Amino acid sequence: MKILHNISQLVVSQSNPKEALRGANLGNLEVITNATMLFDKTVVFIGTDDEVRKYILDNDILVTDTINANDKCVIPGFVDSHTHIVFGGDRANEFGQRLKGATYQEIAVAGGGIAHTVKKTRLATFDELYQNASKLLENAIRYGTTTIEIKSGYGLNFEGEIKQLEVIKELQKNYPLEIVSTFMGAHDFPAEFKSNPDKYVDLICNEMLPYVAENKLAEYCDAFIDEGYFTIAQTEKIFETALQYGFKLKLHADELVNKAATEFACRIGTISVDHLLMISEHGIDSLSSSATIGTLLPATAYFIRMPYAPARQLIESNCAIAIASDCNPGSSFTESMQTVLSLSAMNMRMTAEECLNAATMNAAFALDRQNKSGSITVGKRADFLILDSSNYLDLFYHFGINHVAQTWIAGNMYSSYDA
Questions:
Q1: Which of 28, 173, 214, 249 is most deeply packed, by most CB within 10 A?
Q2: Element (DSSP H or E) covering residue 223
Q3: What is the mean pLDDT of the chain?
Q4: What is the pTM of this model?
Q5: b or e along 76-91 (b: 16 or more beta carbons within 10 Å of the residue's beta carbon)?
């Protein structure tokens, strides 16, 4: 058993809520000052130093390791509930075009965007994809991510999608953090099916989904409803098939234009609906009365110079929201959840406390991991961060640097290694 003591602030988040945090409750952060934590792979006991020492004596617990936090702040590990970190190539040249005024849609029409990454990902070997993803994953951990979701969606054919999912499976074997796999064959239509998109929908339903389910390569199924991408009717067919095979559902919605995708997501019961830059008033009403988590991706809005999702309106409308990185090569190339916190606070006008809860507890709900991750709670995995500061507000105040001194995953301090 290990003990971590001399903690200036132990940010619990919110211990064990039965549902995602909404409205004013999103800004309520549980903080224990001058705290001590007893843990092994899971959190065993937290409280003041006297309370923890008494618990150890009363229960005759053998402490094998004592760690001094040196009056630093301890917070839950970040839960990044939306990423695309398995891909080939890069899109730096496209980024340069956008800086000169080209839009995301214009680049896509010219053969760039997702189509460019699909071409590079199909050509990449398994090892190349694994090594590239490993570097991003190492950085994410270094910046405090202890649970992460990773999507496919850059193969857009049977072989390419399965190759991506197999890479994710290998990452799950080799890294200690919780990795959640999502199948996203419905990310875009590949060039060979542009003239017959419904035939590609059939390929997803009749070949990809059955194989992915049989080989247990993904927990979630995701799709992209937007102008030039999948329609609600096409997505509904995919999702109905996915549900038959036992997949949980997530959805990219209302990013570039409003397609009433949020309303559809709430009706069909997706775990989360993500992006929401162009969500309508009706969409907000639907989200507020549903159990679906609205996952906001401010780094995407920043990266492609789009309006930010209306976080304040969503919070004040009693919607449950999370925040995530959307790390991908074309529209949000960052694996740092600390950057996401800063963008959320400054550009979506969320409070520090709302940001922390949205990046931990609510993000865990967005992956159905609320009983394992998202807060420093007795019985949950001991996933936590020791910051370089005594105050969690320094995450926002002193921006642009890495404030994580140590990342602990399942009770062990993580040390980078050459995977």
A1: 249
A2: strand 220-225
A3: 96
A4: 0.96
A5: bbbbbbbbbbbbbbeb
